Automatic annotation (TrEMBL):
UniProt lineage: Eukaryota, Metazoa, Chordata, Craniata, Vertebrata
Protein source organism: Antrostomus carolinensis
PANTHER family, per database record: CADHERIN-19, CADHERIN-23
GO MF annotation terms: beta-catenin binding; cadherin binding; calcium ion binding
Name of the protein in question: Cadherin-19
Entry GO CC: adherens junction; catenin complex
Stored InterPro entries: Cadherin, Cadherin-like_dom, Cadherin-like_sf, Cadherin_CS, Cadherin_Y-type_LIR, Catenin-bd_sf
Length: 782
C-alpha cells in the first residue's frame, strides 16, 4: 500500500465517523462518500532510501537510486523531473526511468545530505500526473580524515616519586569522519615512546605513571602518543589513519634528599684582635633538591656556641661562622666546634628514610696579635675628701701588656677643658693625685679618662674611665633660702606671727640636715620680736609687744642665728628686715610695699601726685609743640621750586632773539670772559660761521684754548654768587680731533654763503627779525 491509498482510507474513516453516533441517512452518505473517496485515490511514489558515497571519483556518473511511480506503465509516456540542491549539476536523473546518478565527488564533512524534489509529467500534455514529492540523498561517510590533536604540544608536570597509576594529563584527538557510521571516527590511543615510565589508557587518552621516578636522576621526559581510527586497524588495511602527539612531562621537586656537608672537617683561623661580628669562615652543605626544598638552617652544637655563632645566607645557602665573643690567644689558642645543618621544610613522607640533617667539625685557631694594654678594671671608682690638700693621693690604676713578652706601659690622663687639670697621674705606676683644691659644692663627681700605652709600640693604646667622688665636709654655714619680705602692722598685738623662716645648707649630710634658730647675742635684749624654733628646720617670728609707730621707727633689723648639725657644727647670722606698715592687724602686702617704696624715696603721697602732674603737663606741652612744627613743615623742594619760578619769564608777544635784552637780564646768561670786549654787531650768520671756523683751528693743545678753560674754571671757583652745585657753562670753542667728525649743525656748510635762507622773508612780519639774521646782505638789499 502506497502513501496515496493510505491517505484515501484515512479520509473515508473521517467521513464515516458521524454514522457511528446514530445520524440518519448514514447509508446514503456512506455510499456517496465511498464512491467519492475511491475516485480521489492518487497513485504514489515507489523508491528506497537513497545514499551516495563520498570521495568517489569516476569518469562516468555513479548510480545512486531510482524513483518510480506506480502510474508508470513502461510505455515511455511519463517523464521524470529532478529539482533541488545540486539537481542538474551534482545529481542527474534519467527522465525515462527515474534513475538518479551523481556526477561529482562528494564530501560529507562539507555537506552531509542534499534535499531534492521529484515530479512526473505527461510527455504529451506536460501536465503533472503525480504531485511533487521531496526526498533526501544522504552522503555516506568513508574514512578520509586523519585524527588531529588540537592542543598539541602538551606540557604536564607531576611530582617526583609519585606512585604508580598517578594521572599525569589527558590528551584528546578529534576525527572529522562521521562517528555515527562505521568505525571511521572511533579512535584508540597508544604509547609510542615513554615506556616503561608512563602508560596511556586506549579509549580516554589519560597518561599515567607506570613507575616511580626521581627528579634528581632525570627531571624531564618526552612521551609520544598515537591516536588511530578504524578501532586501531592497521594503517593501509581498510583505510585506517593515525596521528602522533608529543607530551613533555616535567618532574617537580619534593624534599626527598637530606643536606650533606662537602667536608667532614673544616679549618679556620681568627685573630685575637678581631672585633665581635667578624666573619671567621664559611661552611656549605649540598642538597640535591631545589627551591624551598633545598632551604636549610645551620647551627652550632656544644659549649663553643657562646664564643662563635653561625648564620645562614639564604641566597647561597652557606653557613657563615661569626665571632660572637672576643678571643684571647694567651687564654685559649684553639677551638673545635660542631656545625649542624638541617632542612628548613621537611616532608613527613620521607622521614622514615632517615633524618634530614648532617654534621661536621670546624676547628678554629686563634692567631696571636700585638694587643694594647689591658686595665684590670674597665671602670674605676675612687673617693677623696674635698678638704684634701693639693697633692693628695686619690687612687691608682693598673694595666698590663697581655702579650707574652709583657711590655711596660705608660699612663696618662686625657684632660678636658672642664676639668682644668685637677688631677695628674704618675706615668710609671698609675697613681692619681690632686693638683688643685676640690670643692664638692661645685662638682661632686669628676670623670676622667686614663690611657695606657705600650712603650714598644706607642700606637697600642687602651683607655679606662675613672670616676672620682668628692666627699663632703661641713664647710658651709646654713643661711636663708631667699630674701624674706616681712611686714608688721602698727596695730599688731603681742605674740602675733608675722613671718615663718627656714634655712638651706650647701653641704651634704648623711643623716639629713637639722637647723636650730635663735636670736643673735646682740638681739637677746630685743623687746620687739622673738624667735620660736619649730624643731622641723623652720622657725616663727613673733611680736613681743603691741603697737608700733612708723613715725618712730620704720624698719627693724632682726639678727637670727642658724646652727647646723654638721661636724664641726657651723653657724651663721642672717638679718631679717621687718617693715612697719600702716594697717590694723592683717598685712596688705601690696599696700605695705607701696608705703615702703614711698618711704625709701622720701616722698609723701601728696608730693608724688604733684610730681606726676608736672610730668603730665610737660608731656602735653611737648606733644603740642611737635604738632605745631608738623603743620608748619614744608616740602623739601619748596625753596628750589621758588628758585625755578624766578627764572620763568612769560611772554605775551614774540621775542626779539639775542638782541632782545629788555625782557630779562641777559647778562646772567653770558660769561665775563666773552663780554670782556665789546664787539660791534655783525650779521648773525657770518659770526656763527666764523666762530665755527675759529674753533676748528684751535686744537686741544692750543695755548688760547687752555687759557680759556682756566679762566672759566677760576671764574666758577671764585664767584661768590655761584651755587654750590654744578651749573651750566657756555663755551664758544668746539672740540676737534674726533674720528666721527663734528656733529654740529653749524658746520654743515663751510662758507659764509652755503645755504640760502631767503624763504624766511616770505613767512611774514612775525619772522622778519629771524629772516634778517639768516639771510645774506645781497638778499636783503634785493
Amino acid at each position: 500500500m502506497n502513501c496515496s491509498t493510505l491517505l484515501s482510507l484515512v479520509l473515508m474513516l473521517v467521513q464515516l465517523w458521524p454514522c457511528s453516533l446514530g445520524t440518519q441517512n448514514c447509508s446514503t452518505q456512506n455510499a456517496e462518500q465511498s464512491f467519492t473517496a475511491v475516485r480521489r485515490v492518487k497513485r504514489g511514489w515507489v523508491w528506497e532510501p537513497l545514499f551516495a558515497t563520498e570521495e568517489q571519483t569516476s569518469k562516468v556518473p555513479v548510480y545512486v537510486g531510482q524513483l518510480k511511480s506506480d502510474l508508470d506503465k513502461q510505455d515511455e509516456n511519463l517523464k521524470y523531473i529532478l529539482i533541488g540542491e545540486g539537481a542538474g549539476s551534482i545529481f542527474i536523473i534519467d527522465e525515462n526511468n527515474g534513475k538518479i546518478y551523481v556526477t561529482q565527488k562528494l564530501d560529507r564533512e562539507k555537506k552531509p545530505f542534499y534535499t531534492l524534489r521529484a515530479q512526473v509529467v505527461n510527455r504529451s500534455t506536460q501536465l503533472p500526473v503525480e504531485p511533487e514529492s521531496e526526498f533526501i540523498i544522504k552522503v555516506r561517510d568513508v574514512n578520509d580524515h586523519e585524527p588531529q590533536f588540537l592542543d598539541e604540544p602538551y606540557v604536564a608536570t607531576v611530582p617526583e616519586m609519585s606512585p604508580e597509576g598517578t594521572s599525569v594529563t589527558q590528551v584528546t584527538a578529534t576525527d572529522g569522519d562521521d562517528p555515527s557510521y562505521g568505525n571511521s571516527a572511533r579512535l584508540l590511543y597508544s604509547l609510542i615512546q615513554g615506556q616503561p615510565y608512563f602508560s596511556v589508557e586506549p579509549k580516554t587518552g589519560v597518561i599515567r605513571m607506570a613507575s616511580q621516578m626521581d627528579r634528581e636522576t632525570k627531571d624531564q621526559y618526552l612521551v609520544i602518543i598515537q591516536a588511530k581510527d578504524m578501532v586501531g586497524e592497521r594503517v593501509g588495511k581498510g583505510g585506517a589513519f593515525s596521528a602522533p602527539a608529543t607530551v613533555t612531562i616535567n618532574l617537580s621537586d619534593i624534599n626527598d634528599n637530606p643536606p650533606k656537608f662537602q667536608q667532614r672537617l673544616y679549618y679556620m683561623s681568627v685573630s685575637e684582635e678581631a672585633p665581635v661580628g667578624t666573619t671567621v669562615g664559611k661552611v656549605f652543605a649540598e642538597d640535591s633538591d631545589i627551591g624551598e626544598n633545598a632551604a636549610m638552617n645551620y647551627f652550632i652544637e656544644g659549649d663553643s656556641s657562646d664564643v662563635f655563632d653561625i648564620i645562614t645566607n639564604n641566597e647561597t645557602q652557606e653557613g657563615i661562622v661569626l665571632l660572637k665573643k672576643r678571643v684571647d690567644y694567651e687564654s685559649r689558642r684553639r677551638y673545635s666546634i660542631q656545625a649542624k645543618v638541617e632542612n628548613r621544610y621537611i616532608d613527613d613522607r620521607f622521614l622514615k628514610e632517615g633524618p634530614f640533617e648532617d654534621k661536621t667539625i670546624v676547628k678554629i685557631n686563634v692567631e696571636d696579635a700585638d694587643e694594647p694594654p689591658v686595665f684590670t678594671l674597665e671602670n674605676y671608682i675612687m673617693e677623696i675628701s674635698e678638704a684634701a690638700v693639693t697633692g693628695s693621693l686619690v687612687g691608682a690604676v693598673t694595666a698590663r701588656d697581655p702579650d707574652d713578652d709583657d711590655c711596660p706601659v705608660r699612663y696618662s690622663i686625657v684632660h678636658g677643658m672642664h676639668l682644668k687639670r685637677l688631677f695628674s697621674i704618675n706615668e710609671y705606676n698609675g697613681t692619681i693625685i690632686t693638683t688643685k683644691p676640690l670643692d664638692r659644692e661645685i662638682a661632686s663627681w669628676h670623670n676622667i679618662t686614663v690611657t695606657a700605652t705600650e712603650t714598644r709600640n706607642p700606637e697600642k693604646i687602651s683607655e679606662a674611665n675613672v670616676y672620682i667622688q668628692v666627699l663632703d665636709v661641713n664647710d658651709h654655714a646654713p643661711e636663708f633660702p631667699k630674701y624674706y619680705e616681712t611686714f608688721v602692722c602698727e596695730n599688731a598685738v603681742s605674740g602675733q606671727l608675722i613671718q615663718s623662716i627656714s634655712a638651706v645648707d650647701q653641704d651634704d649630710s648623711a643623716e639629713g640636715h637639722h637647723f636650730y634658730f635663735s636670736l643673735a647675742q646682740e638681739a637677746k635684749n630685743n623687746s620687739h620680736f622673738t624667735v620660736k624654733d619649730n624643731q622641723d628646720n623652720t622657725a616663727g617670728i613673733f611680736t613681743a609687744k603691741s603697737g608700733f609707730r612708723r613715725q618712730e621707727q620704720f624698719y627693724f633689723y632682726l639678727p637670727i642665728l642658724i646652727l647646723d648639725n654638721g661636724t664641726p657644727p657651723l653657724t651663721s647670722t642672717n638679718t631679717l628686715t621687718i617693715t612697719v606698715c600702716d594697717c590694723d592687724t592683717e598685712v596688705n602686702t601690696f599696700y605695705c610695699r607701696y608705703g615702703a617704696f614711698m618711704y625709701a624715696m622720701g616722698l609723701s603721697t601728696e608730693a608724688l601726685v604733684a610730681v606726676l602732674a608736672c610730668i603730665l603737663i610737660l608731656l602735653v606741652f611737648f606733644l603740642a609743640i611737635l604738632a605745631i612744627r608738623q603743620q608748619r613743615k614744608k616740602s623739601p623742594f619748596s625753596e628750589k621750586m621758588e628758585e625755578f619760578r624766578e627764572n620763568i619769564v612769560r611772554y605775551d608777544d614774540e621775542g626779539g632773539g639775542e638782541e632782545d635784552t629788555e625782557a630779562f637780564d641777559i647778562s646772567a646768561l653770558r660769561t665775563r670772559t666773552i663780554m670782556r670786549t665789546h664787539k660791534p654787531r655783525k650779521t648773525v650768520t657770518t659770526e656763527i660761521h666764523s666762530l665755527y671756523r675759529q674753533s676748528l683751528q684751535v686744537g686741544p693743545d692750543n695755548e688760547i684754548f687752555r687759557q680759556f678753560i682756566s679762566e672759566k674754571l677760576e671764574e666758577a671757583n671764585t664767584d661768590p654768587s655761584a651755587p654750590p652745585y654744578d651749573s651750566l657753562q657756555t663755551y664758544i670753542f668746539e672740540g676737534t680731533g674726533s674720528l666721527a667728525g663734528s656733529l654740529s649743525s653749524l658746520g654743515s656748510n663751510m662758507s659764509d654763503v652755503d645755504q640760502c635762507y631767503d624763504y624766511l622773508t616770505d613767512w611774514g612780519p612775525h619772522f622778519e627779525q629771524l629772516a634778517g639774521m639768516y639771510t645774506s646782505p645781497r638778499s636783503v638789499e634785493d
